[in-house]
Amino acid sequence: MDVYLHLIAQGLAIGLLTGILYVLIALGLTLIYGILHIVNFAHGEIYMLGAMGVYYCYVVFKLPFAATLVVILVLSLLLGLGVERAFFRSLRGQWLQLVVASVGLSLIIQSLGWIAFGIQEKNVPSFFTGVVAFGGVRLPMERLVAAAVGVVLVALLYALVYRTKVGLAMRAIEEDEETARMLGIDADRVAALACAVGFALAALAGAFVAPIYSLNPGMGFEAILMSFLIIIVGGLGSITGTVLAGLLVGVLQSVGGVLLGAEAAYGLVFIVMIVVLVVRPSGLLGKA
What we know:
The chain is mainly alpha-helical. It contains 11 helices and 2 strands, in the order H-H-H-H-E-E-H-H-H-H-H-H-H. Helices cover 76% and strands 3% of the residues. It has a two-stranded antiparallel sheet with strand order 1-2. Helix 2 packs across helix 9 (220-234). The longest helix is centred in the first third of the chain and has 35 residues, at 2-36. The termini are far apart.
């Protein structure tokens, strides 16, 4: 029994750390949806590009870890600004056209990824070696650092949205874009910033996942699937709901893997999520 409880505690701890990474990816998606009302199907590919960026900057070109993160952050911000200007801005308010554009962008990036990166899976050595033990629970240092950075980024995003004038403008556009424009808010500039920040969160999540999993150009599929699941269950456009749902998914997946096996754990996640939506169709903290 003690061994069983220890395995559950280990799974719970790993699940919380994994959930924070899920939160990072999903927050970028919910920010873009909340401000631009765009379901960005290419979000998983941005996550993939962040992971691949770590491989080429850190492994191939031997850049220091900090410099690698700066490169990925800058490039993802620029990519977000470029995509919003080139694809999303002219299609704002046209839901079906935006879906087609984001799906097309996803397929384009993934296809170019297979050509540029090849089909062979890539691996990144750990940024931080060692294991930390808490009451018998052993956690890899790289996961702890990734989770700590994730918590900081979530806090910064929360401060941006709820404690700054830019965040006030974002929330105004989310509620009523036409009225926000009449009040003098530059909706296009705010939307571009939201898209850039969303892309940066996804890319940084991919950067910290790089040493944990094998990398390939198709790795964004699971990320976007889990992100959609999380933002729907958390409540569309709700940052706090996304955080809660992301942690819940991470814990269910990890503990379920310990109790039932990895494949059955996915089924458990979806069963619990369906139950949550039956009880609260608008999500945990979503608006009715």
